[in-house]
UniProtKB/TrEMBL annotation:
<feature type="domain" description="TonB-dependent receptor plug">
    <location>
        <begin position="118"/>
        <end position="239"/>
    </location>
</feature>
<dbReference type="InterPro" id="IPR012910">
    <property type="entry name" value="Plug_dom"/>
</dbReference>
<dbReference type="Pfam" id="PF00593">
    <property type="entry name" value="TonB_dep_Rec_b-barrel"/>
</dbReference>
<protein>
    <submittedName>
        <fullName>TonB-dependent receptor</fullName>
    </submittedName>
</protein>
<dbReference type="InterPro" id="IPR008969">
    <property type="entry name" value="CarboxyPept-like_regulatory"/>
</dbReference>
<dbReference type="InterPro" id="IPR039426">
    <property type="entry name" value="TonB-dep_rcpt-like"/>
</dbReference>
<dbReference type="Pfam" id="PF13715">
    <property type="entry name" value="CarbopepD_reg_2"/>
</dbReference>
<dbReference type="InterPro" id="IPR036942">
    <property type="entry name" value="Beta-barrel_TonB_sf"/>
</dbReference>
<keyword id="KW-0812">Transmembrane</keyword>
<keyword id="KW-1134">Transmembrane beta strand</keyword>
<dbReference type="InterPro" id="IPR037066">
    <property type="entry name" value="Plug_dom_sf"/>
</dbReference>
<keyword id="KW-0472">Membrane</keyword>
<comment type="similarity">
    <text>Belongs to the TonB-dependent receptor family.</text>
</comment>
<dbReference type="InterPro" id="IPR000531">
    <property type="entry name" value="Beta-barrel_TonB"/>
</dbReference>
<keyword id="KW-0798">TonB box</keyword>
<dbReference type="GO" id="GO:0009279">
    <property type="term" value="C:cell outer membrane"/>
</dbReference>
<dbReference type="Pfam" id="PF07715">
    <property type="entry name" value="Plug"/>
</dbReference>
Length: 942
């Protein structure tokens, strides 16, 4: 490059242009109704250069050139306002009006304080939780987002151990651990739980969004683009930023109750020939849900504030079990005598029902969000919270016939004396979540500076009740048999330290430069359960070790494990013209356990006539293996397909670097890496109408999965290791596959009034996703396995078709929602439909008589057509009606899933389990709880 050009570009990027004659404009920005100051409101010169943001008192001071004619004031969730610059340039009083739009673009993902909501080069949605929460029946954040943000999907799981108590979520069809969650822009810690059962997001670790009280949330910002170069690990699918309330002097809250009032065909024998629709339905009233929340803020004379929120939730379990068609009691003289035994005992098949549906949850949350001015333009911002949940879910019913049969039948026979009708074991959880974040924020010279520390802990304790350790009868009699067990605890802790600087330079039409560093320490621990929860007291008997349904964590794998990483980042946003902006970011991270990574992001936006914008971005990303994926180890009782139905198997999850993993040739665990590409358009053809359409491609290499179960084979060393852990099989976390994710997202939002008093808001949003495991020229998935593993003959246990379906088709490949809000004086109506596209179950077995067989040539084999199942799309309709009573109270009544829509009844035999599972627990659309009717009283007292 010519030397003069080099000098020009250096000057362009790093030196401010000398200003012409200027004047200073000062003012205050407030909410038009509450008169509360709006901190962080954007103040920019329209069509010119320069910008600033308001302080804690809503005040601003902006230098502008004499040629400037107009300034634009904008704030997240409010209508922007243009102010003509007149002779009066000091003491301006500016009031902004809240907007009810669902899809406003906001500044998450940008460190430019003057960037308005329509100027970001990637898609960002805003979900105004304060407006939505009182209109809908969903009471937790996961479910609210599922129905208002099509790119977000979360379904409740059942018969899945701890996953029954924390709903896994997805963004853009990717994993729950490929979403980065922030609160007030600070990284949120993950749950201690790793999903190891056969659910959606198997093998992944997520953030427990239900630990954050909805009452405390002002809005949720969803950045739909890769952002690892800006925020670090996990931000492959995007970022969810939860913004807490700051309001003061207003007491608001709500009390609500609802329950499922529904019907479903319980008796599988009556509908199995037609699949659905012809069996008499069983009417059900269950799943009662109570919620009470309260929020209040205190304002200080120095413009500081403390906002407090509290919430209590109580959810009863729901049950959509089918009638068991298998043998209940032990055979008598080689014959099944179930009918006569039930008649004599006064029982029937309903006595032996499982509990398949939502788990039972009781919990409460506290949250505080505060700011304390320190003088000299510096503030101390502190927020944090505490959440406690007690959950209860059930496992597979242990029928008298299964209690008595099999190895160790003597001890099981004694267990039958304790439970003559068998037993339904319960998994009870004690989940606690603590967090606190403190940040000193102000000015260092002309730089905006922030020094913050964030601390978070999640603990997950397990208790097994109404159960038994079969082998324990070797040392005690049924009269004093133990039926309740402390199974141990998981714990995850994270400490994050950040230093951030940013500054806006008057270069061309504005340049924002930001840089900073982050130090993070992750710590994961397992606490062993009490001895009787995991011990096999009589190994020769062959009886299953530990408490039935969930054996405790064992001492050999107990302990605390830590790692740290340090990151350095820089990003720049340059407005070359009023229409054209370019953003670039670099981030370097070094992890103590796997090394370094460098990632980038490049994005651009171009405006056309203020009504049309095109945007595009490209970036690289990464996700470090979670501590849970590296160190989780436990033996679980899994029910897998076998001759005659599901068979209980003790399966051990071993660390990736363990001896069994080395024997089998499981590759060493490493980070996932990604490449993200996106392009889109936004249009505002006329007032009130906004349209956005975005397309994207996300390629992920070395995606981490949890393998299926390996047996000891012919290797005596492996057999000995499994036996010592009380396991018959073993699975591991490994980087098994590469994936490609493509999609299109569209949002249309239109607000208008008729005769001023009739207010309408329409929102339509849709997403279309295609996920796939990367395949070779032969159309078969490329499986990343060592030669040792390939030679072992157990490659099918490494990654199979059901694993493939979880990536590709087990979640809706398309989702859409349409919402209409109507307001007339004190009356409000909300009508919403949500469309969930088809899902597909791919059976891993090639022959029902030999379910374990899995040769590699089984992929896409036509022989599987009778075992796979496609579930038809479903549309759910919600409605609510609200009425304001007096000045302070609003009463709302409504129904979710008004027309009582259910997923298709399923046919894949490995999950049918002799009539018990009416609906698939392997693939999910909108769950299977049916209609939910609710009522709510909310209040807002000033």
């Amino acid at each position: 490059m010519h030397m003069s050009k080099r000098i020009f570009y250096i000057v362009l990027l790093f030196l401010p242009i000398f200003s012409v004659a200027q004047k200073v404009i000062t003012g205050t920005v407030k909410d038009y109704k509450t008169k509360q100051p709006l901190q962080g409101a954007s103040v920019v010169v329209k069509g010119g250069t320069g910008g600033t943001s308001t302080n804690t008192a809503g005040e601003f001071s902006l230098s502008v050139s004499d040629q400037a004619k107009t300034i634009t004031i904008s704030y997240v969730g409010y209508e922007s306002k243009d102010i003509a610059i007149s002779s009066v340039t000091s003491g301006l009083e500016i009031s902004l009006v809240p907007t009810e739009q669902l899809t406003d673009i906001v500044v998450v993902g940008s460190r430019n304080l003057s960037r308005t909501r329509t100027e970001t080069p990637v898609a960002v949605d805003i979900i105004p939780i304060t407006q939505i929460a009182n209109q809908v029946g969903q009471t937790d954040l996961n479910q609210i987002l599922t129905y208002v943000a099509p790119s977000f999907q979360s379904s409740r799981q059942t018969i899945a151990d701890g996953t029954d108590h924390v709903d896994p979520a997805q963004l853009r069809g990717l994993g729950t651990d490929q979403i980065l969650v922030l609160i007030n822009g600070k990284r949120r810690h993950q749950s201690a739980l790793v999903n190891v059962n056969g659910t959606v997001n198997r093998g992944q670790v997520g953030t427990d969004l239900s630990a954050i009280p909805v009452t405390a949330i002002e809005r949720v910002e969803v950045l739909r683009d890769g952002a690892a170069a800006q925020y670090g690990s996990d931000a492959i699918a995007g970022v969810i930023n939860i913004v807490l309330k700051k309001s003061t002097g207003i007491l608001n809250g709500s009390v609500s109750y609802g329950q499922n009032i529904t019907a479903y065909p319980k008796d599988y024998a009556l509908f199995k020939t037609t699949n659905r629709g012809e069996a008499p339905d069983q009417k059900v009233n269950d799943g009662g849900t109570f919620q009470a929340g309260l929020n209040y803020g205190i304002g200080f004379k120095n413009q500081g504030y403390m906002n407090f929120s509290g919430e209590y939730n109580l959810r009863d379990f729901s049950n959509r079990t089918g009638t068991y068609t298998g043998q209940i009691y032990p055979s008598v003289g080689g014959q099944n005598k179930d009918d006569s035994i039930m008649a004599a005992r006064g029982t029937n098949r309903n006595t032996f029902d499982m509990r398949i549906g939502n788990s039972k949850i009781a919990g409460g949350s506290l949250m505080v969000n505060s700011q304390f001015p320190l003088g000299g333009g510096w503030n101390l911002n502190v927020f944090g919270g505490y959440n406690k949940k007690n959950g209860e879910a059930a496992g597979f019913y242990r029928y008298p016939s299964s209690v008595f049969s099999g190895a160790g039948s003597t001890y099981r026979g004694e267990a039958l004396e304790l439970y003559p009708e068998g037993f339904l074991p319960l998994i009870q959880t004690n989940i606690q979540d603590y967090s606190i974040s403190a940040a000193f924020e102000g000015k260092v010279g002309q730089w905006n500076a922030s020094f913050s520390e964030t601390f978070g802990v999640n603990t997950f304790g397990f208790t097994v009740d109404n159960s038994v350790n079969y082998s324990q009868f070797a040392v005690q009699t049924p009269t004093n048999a133990q039926t309740k067990f402390n199974a141990g605890e998981l714990k995850f802790q994270q400490i994050t330290s950040n230093i951030d600087f940013s500054r806006n330079f008057n270069v061309l039409h504005g340049m924002n430069l930001a840089f900073g560093s982050e130090l993070r320490v992750d710590q994961y621990g397992q606490k062993a359960g009490e001895e009787s929860s995991y011990r096999n007291y009589d190994v020769p008997s062959g009886a299953a070790a530990g408490a039935q349904v969930f054996a405790g964590f064992t001492p050999p794998f107990a302990g605390t494990f830590s790692r740290n990483n340090i990151a350095l980042y820089a990003d720049v946003e340059q407005d070359f013209t009023r229409e054209w902006m370019v953003e670039g970011a670099l981030r370097f991270e070094n992890y103590s356990d796997f090394g370094s990574t460098l990632n980038y992001k490049l994005a651009s936006r171009y405006k056309i006539a203020d009504k049309f914008t095109i945007r595009a971005a490209a970036s690289s990303g990464f996700r470090a293996p979670s501590m849970q994926q590296r160190f989780y180890a436990k033996t679980n009782t899994l029910f897998v397909s076998g001759p005659g139905g599901l068979v209980a198997t003790e399966s051990g999850t071993f660390p990736n670097g363990s001896a069994p993993a080395k024997i089998l040739g499981i590759p060493e665990l490493k980070q996932e890496t990604s490449r993200n590409y996106s392009a889109g358009i936004t249009a505002k053809p006329f007032t009130g109408l906004e349209i956005t359409v975005d397309g994207y491609i996300i390629e992920i290499d070395n995606r981490i999965v949890l393998t299926n179960n390996f047996n000891g084979g012919n290797d005596p060393a492996l057999q000995a290791l499994l036996s010592a852990a009380g396991a018959q099989t073993a699975n591991f976390f490994t980087n098994a596959i590469d994936t490609r994710n493509k999609g299109i997202e569209a949002v249309v939002n239109y607000s208008f009034n008729i005769a001023r008093e009739h207010k309408f808001r329409f929102t339509a949003a849709a997403t279309f996703i295609k996920n796939e495991v990367r395949k070779g020229a032969d159309g078969k998935p490329i499986i990343k396995a060592s030669q040792v593993l390939i030679n072992s003959g157990q490659l099918g246990n490494y990654f199979n078709r059901e694993d493939q379906s979880r990536i590709e088709v087990a979640n809706p490949q398309s989702k859409a929602s349409f919402m209409l809000n109507y307001k007339f004086k004190k009356l409000g109506v909300m009508l919403r439909t949500a469309y969930f596209g088809k899902v597909t179950y791919l059976d891993p077995s090639i022959n029902p008589a030999n379910p374990g067989a899995f040769p590699m040539n089984a992929f896409n084999n036509n022989q599987r057509e009778t075992l796979d199942q496609e579930f038809a799309p479903k549309t759910v309709t919600d409605i609510s009606v609200s009425y304001e009573i007096g000045k302070f109270f609003t009463v709302t009544a409504g129904a979710n899933n008004l027309f009582d829509e259910y997923q298709d009844l399923h046919k894949h035999s490995s999950n049918m389990s002799l009539g018990r599972f009416m609906y698939s627990r392997r693939v999910q659309q909108m769950g299977f709880n049916g209609r939910f009717v609710f009522a709510r009283v909310s209040f807002n007292i000033k």
